[in-house]
Amino acid sequence: MPTIRPDLPQATRLRVGECVVDIPLREIVRAGGTGVRVTAKSMAVLLMLARQPGQVVARDTLLDSVWAGTLPTDDVLTQAITGLRKAFGDDRDAPAYLETIPKSGYRLLAEVEWLPDAPPEHLAKHRWRGRVAWVLGVVAVVALGWWIGAGRFHAVAPPPATPAVPASDGELAYTLLTSRVGPETQPALSPDGAMVAYAMPPGAIDDPAAIFIQAAHPVAPRQLTTPPRGSSDHLPRWSPDGTQLMFARIDENGGCEFQLLPVSGGAGRAIGRCDRVNGRYDWLPDGSGVVAGLKPEAEGRPGALSNLRLETGQWEPMRYAIGPADVDFDPRFSPDGTRIGFRRNLSRSDVWEMPAGGGEPQRLTRLRGSISGWDWAPDGKSLLLGTLGSPPRLYRHDLGTGLTRALGRFPAVGLDLAARRNTMVFTVDDARIAMFRYRLPLGSGTIAEPLFASTGTDLLPSPSPDGKWIAFHSDRSREARLWLGDPDDPGHLRMVDGIAPISRHPPQWSPDSRSILVVGEVTDAEGVPRQLLYQVDVASGRSTEVAVDDGVPYFAQHLPGQRLLLVVDGGAGRLSLRIVDAAAPPLRTLARMDDVGEARFDPVSGEVFLVRGSSPGLWRVGLDLRTPELVAADQPAGYWLRRWGTLDGRPFALRTAAPGCLAQWHWMGVEPTPAAGCLDPERRGEPSLAVMVSQDRAWLYASMVVGLENSDIGLLELDPPQSESSATP
Predict the structure, then answer these.
(1) Under 8 Å between Cβ of 294 and 273
(2) Which residue of 21, 162, 295, 456 pairs with 299 in a disulfide if CB–CB is 3.0 to 4.6 A?
């Protein structure tokens, strides 16, 4: 019987008996072509058994490895084995695949053969990213900040493979540089495009991330850093001359420090503090330091760009024009070093530019959407931008004409271009999101109850006031849509057709449970997405547009007395909060407050809780919006603006870096902050976006990133820019 060969690090599939196992996809395909997807835990159990085919693997060994860091019951292993048997079509009493050894463990009976290369048609299925791309849009927060909870990703199979991903349904063709089970993220190309650096766990189940480098084609990587105990390394960036790497070292308490290391190896050195929430930065053109945004308060204005000098280790604010409510981040210098581009404002950002030394910024793009990454083209004449949405796209913005062209579907985040070569790398994610509810009040014994299980991604559950329906976003139909489900009858589901919801906020119910407010996306004839506010009639499923005349709708919620709470983008990504009279069109503004990032009406207190876009903290204010009161000074902050809610007039938030729990619920505005409970610590999930509390205050609803999280590094060779005559301004 063949055994696993350690000299096949590129293997992502294996043949078990008459079945083929796709490890990244977690799919077992029988000889007749029927594929069954198994859970992440079932796949991890199978891989452990496959390492020792024909040998008994003890139950304790499986539990200690696959469920490391938890307190599992025997049932979880039994369920994992049961799932594998169903996928293999195996008979427990006359097994051909999995044999139970009473009071001992399990044995894999079938022959095992590792298959390093997948056939093209299989790869096309594996890397079809229309649905996964939508997941990227709703977990962009997680994708940016996954390293804060370093060590939670399970790397159970060795690295990298060599697949090339063909274009399908308008998707851009790209090559995968890595395909190891687990996360490879935050890639950066050397200036000549010959090497790529990225972050990933070195191999063990709970290893913290380290920095790896490899040639820009599918070969085995070289580990460059070994973080000390309690720390992890992230966000590598090559120096302008390509001889050094800067990276961010994050400790278990959330501290962040920039480290500098020669690419050839050797000792690194600490440079200065960095921001653990937003680590995006770029080298200064002369290599004397780096530039970044969203600096801590102690280092200067939080929303302004600043330079960190290598010689002094001190941050120096850049001198340029910036409004009091503006937030600038994700800076990139042009290839010739004369200009600096950056994204302005968090929720609906666009790219701006100014002279490298500072000055008056000018707005370049007008996508007004969720940018997943951007960079200058090597010739400095255009920008490449990825946007999240349904579907996500890659755009080229021509700086000479000011026109923007959609190049194709682009299911990826965090792009980076080589300074002297038309080559781009990015992260292709494969996260899955599921919905759960939790009985309130939370306690140590709280059990997560799954909602409407599917093979797709379900998120942002919102219970109706009468408790009869749960509205949510899902791609279970292969397209992002609004769905309705009966919590007492999981098989009773309805899809609302015609709306592609933007998955930032849960759907918002009217007080009588008859209609839903949801912000959706439409694409115009030129391929540019636009956002509209819809009201959906629950009985008929028909939707009508709610006209917002002086801005782009970002969020909407019903208020008592035929009023609406609106968060509107009035331009340049600057959001404002408005209370409007919705008794008859057009909407009439009753009160307004600027510089608002997120806002929610709390029916118990009758107040609005809100966060700013330009600074951390939580405020509360009456419906006249006149005298806001600070509730919590330091959180929510940055990219975690949405992970909070209210219960009985009290605000709470989800802490994603709490020890032993990636979703720790705690009250806000109380010192010390008492923890209310952990959302399913055994699942090792992570909350995605906003949470909801039912009107009877009996349930907490949340969507969680669950299961084995995989992400790979992709590479795309860019074509030269084409004529922009048909592009859009």
Answers:
(1) no
(2) 295
What phi and psi, each to the nearest 5 degrees, are found at residue 85? -60, -40
Q: Which residue has the higher pLDDT, 55 or 526?
A: 55
Q: How many CB atoms lie within 10 A of CB 423?
A: 19
E-strand ranges in 267-418 read 269-273, 281-283, 289-292, 306-309, 315-317, 328-333, 339-344, 350-355, 362-363, 371-376, 382-387, 393-398, 404-409, 413-417
Q: Beta-carbon neighbour count of residue 90 at 10 Å? A: 19
- Cα separations in angstroms, 233 against 150, 237, 251, 273, 722: 9, 12, 9, 14, 39
467: closest CA among 513, 435, 510? 513
Residue 136: name the closest of 472, 625, 480, 436 by CA.
480
Structural class in CATH, domain 13-115: mainly alpha
DSSP string, 343-358: EESSTT-EEEEEETT-
Poorest-confidence range of 393-397, 420-424, 532-536, 637-641? Answer: 637-641
Q: Give the residue from 408, 387, 378 showing the smallest Cα distance to 189.
A: 378
329, 341 contact by CB (below 8 A) = no
* Among 325, 332, 243, residue whose Cα is nearest residue 285: 332
Q: Which helix (H) or strand (E) holds 62?
A: helix 59-66
**Nearest residue to 503 (alpha-carbon basis) of 487, 527, 479, 486:** 479
Q: Which is nearest to 323 in space by CA: 306, 345, 299?
A: 345
Joined tokens for residue 715 = 């590479």
Tokens of 427: 């992260």
With beta carbons less than 8 A apart as the criterion, state whether 435 and 451 touch: yes
Angle (CA) 663 84 687, round 5°: 10
pLDDT tens per residue across span 543-600:
999 998 888 899 999 999 999 999 998 876 688 999 999 988 889 999 999 988 889 9
DSSP letter for 297, please. Answer: G
Q: What is the CA angle 340-403-394, rounded to 5? A: 75
3-state DSSP assignment of residue 723? coil
Per-residue pLDDT, averaged over 654-671, amounts to: 70
Tell me the β-bridge partners of 283: 290
Between vectors from CA 254 to CA 249 and to CA 259, what angle results, nearest 5°? 15
User: Where in the chain do CATH 1.10.10.10 domains reside?
Assistant: 13-115
For 375-415, write each residue's pLDDT tens digit: 999 999 999 999 877 678 898 999 999 888 888 888 888 89
